[in-house]
Amino acid sequence: MAKKKSKFLSGKRIDPTPIDSTTTLADLVDESFMAYNAARIREACRLFTNKMLETNVTVGVTLTGALTPAGLGISALIPLIKAGFIDWIISTGANLYHDTHFGIGLSLHQGDAKMDDRILREEEVVRIYDIFFDYSVLLDTDEFFRRVIEGEEFQRTMSSAEFHYLCGKYVRERERKLGLENKSLLAVAYEYGVPVYTSSPGDSSIGMNIAAKELQGSNLILNPNLDVNETASIVLAAKRGIVHSGKKSKKGGKSAIFILGGGSPKNFALQTEPQIQEVLGIDEKGHDYFLQVTDARSDTGGLSGATPGEAVSWGKIDPDQLPDAVVAYVDSTVALPIITAYALARHEPREPKRLYERREEFMDLLKREYEKSTRR
Length: 376
What we know:
By secondary structure, the protein is of the alpha/beta class. It has helices at residues 25-32, 36-52, 72-82, 93-103, 117-122, 135-148, 160-178, 185-192, 205-214, 224-239, 242-245, 263-270, 272-279, 308-313, 332-346, 359-371, and strands at 57-63, 88-91, 109-110, 125-128, 131-134, 157-158, 196-198, 221-222, 254-260, 289-293, 325-328. The strands form three sheets. Strands 7-2-1-9-10-11 form a six-stranded parallel β-sheet, sandwiched between helices. Strands 3-5-4 form a three-stranded antiparallel β-sheet.
């Protein structure tokens, strides 16, 4: 009698197609990324492309680590926005500051991480690991932001999304004058109506320049309360189906979070669900799709390495959707270009959702549902 085959042997047989000169990147991922973290990247590519990019899913991306100085804004994030694959963003301020270098025509260069930093200091060269740039790049970018935020439209309290939208408008105008195009994430986010938040506005050179201008009487204030409520309203509108259909849908919609790195932006994106459920008392279950690329371990107890299973215990992730959660323990500078190329090869572009222009609509929804809550 033949032995019954174990259910644990139902996975695809490991028998990859040999790589040759005609192998595309998407085929490489599907056919050769068989095990270990290569398999996690394959799972990440397929989750993002096959599920997170469905029409009724709203995709939020978080950015930590020095991604834009490495050119990943230009090579990966901008193409994803233009394809309609990113709907909203939470980033460190540093990524947005360094992104601006490219949009205002400043240059960063490949370097040698083994260089003596004392020599680089004497040469007025700034180093981000193996990325080198002249100290004047910082001074010129500081000057750009200081001049921009002197404008009358900045003399008030606003969310970081509104601030970055206005800045993106000026970066785009500088690009136009310099004959540049698609160099700045902020500029493209402005064009495509993608709201860009930062979870810690004072923790970057942009925030430092805002603080400096306040010493001179500037009235610009970035209100984190607005950011907390606006991001929660985007997620609630996504789950209620309003983002996709324009009106509350019985079938609802879905929310996906794509986390690059971890840190404060990761928590800020995931805390939208506890804000909705725990604090505001609105009936909700959590994000539907969780995708993280990280090099942080979970056993140290840090947020960056916290697993999607742990997020379920906080109400951040819908427990019913936990199978649709992937963590790839890979450097973002390796994983993001692969995921981007795979998605662009395997999925048609989506219509941009232009969420920035609908913030007031989403906030009205949040307020209406909060009005019905017993937590008030």
